[in-house]
Design a protein that fits this description.
The protein has seven helices and ten strands. It is an alpha/beta fold and 265 residues long. The protein has a single domain, classed as Glycoside hydrolase/deacetylase (TIM Barrel, Alpha-Beta Barrel), CATH 3.20.20.370. The strands form three sheets. Strands 1, 4, 5, 6, 7 and 10 form a six-stranded parallel beta sheet that branches. The N terminus and C terminus are likely disordered. Bound molecules: zinc ion.
Length: 265
């Protein structure tokens, strides 16, 4: 069996995407209620990073992972992603990632910068403002879009899709003064029209919230990391990913034609 990031034997010209992509949200030592199980303690994140290092793996942003995969250099890499753009990413995750020489992608809700996660009925957490978003990018991490207002996109009207998907990219590109190639569907909610809108908005890739369905370049699967995940859980998730999804192909820059799917948070 191949391990995470190792190329699967394949015929010439075929492209295969195997590395797991981990999905975190808030990284914080807070002990406030966490009804949606979206907060991982920094000590636990550090144990995860230490485990990756011990296994000879390196966590990188999704953009970097895809680029490496295209160049046949994804062996030993796994993706690290952080949804919603909370300020605790800058405070707690960035120093740890730096210490371990790893990078990640943070998906920012572009219309809520400097605000809070009003879409959530859980604890209200501060979201990075434009200055902090620039700081993240300057520290070598990838900034992706997570819509303008964190809405579920499955079933949304074309106008809404264009606003949430396209406008958020323009807002972040204006903040960063550089291209924003990555997008992430809030709640993992998408359908064919949403996936098509992602391509039409000029994104290079997008990810969902589940690791159960093989996706294509704009519906890339991710492994959810729960607050209680030990190193052993992480290994189990990587093995599961490798077994279930390791042998699918990665189409290049698809522009639509995606099966209507949606999933829970
Ligand atoms: Zn989110």
């Amino acid at each position: 069996m191949t391990g995470p990031g190792e190329p699967v034997p394949t015929t010439a010209g075929e492209r295969v995407f195997t590395p797991p992509v981990f999905m975190y949200h808030s990284i914080s030592p807070s002990d406030a209620p966490d009804p949606h199980a979206l907060r991982v303690h920094p000590d636990r994140l550090e144990r995860h990073l230490r485990l990756l290092r011990r296994l000879g793996l390196c966590g990188v942003s999704l953009g970097e992972l895809l680029q490496a995969e295209e160049g046949g250099a994804a062996r030993g890499l796994v993706g690290l992603t952080f949804d919603d753009g909370y300020t605790d990413f800058l405070e707690h995750a960035v120093p740890l990632l730096d210490r371990y020489g790893m990078t990640g992608t943070v998906y920012v809700v572009a219309g809520r910068m400097g605000d809070r996660n009003q879409w959530d009925d859980g604890p209200q957490l501060p979201i990075m403002d434009a200055v902090q978003v620039r700081e993240v990018a300057a520290a070598g991490h990838e900034v992706g879009s997570h819509t303008m207002t964190h809405v579920a996109l499955a079933g949304a009207e074309p106008k809404r899709l264009a606003a949430e998907i396209g406008d958020s990219r323009r807002v972040l590109e204006d903040v960063l003064q550089s291209e924003v190639p990555g997008f992430c569907y809030p709640y993992g909610s998408f359908d064919a029209a949403a996936a098509e809108a992602v391509g039409a908005a000029g994104y290079d890739h997008a990810c969902v919230t589940g690791d159960y369905d093989p996706g294509d370049r704009v519906t890339l699967p991710r492994c959810y990391v729960s607050p209680g995940d030990t190193a052993a859980h992480l290994v189990a998730r990587m093995v599961r990913h490798t077994v279930r999804l390791g042998r699918r192909r990665l189409p290049v820059r698809t522009r639509g034609g995606h099966p209507p799917t949606s999933s829970a948070r």
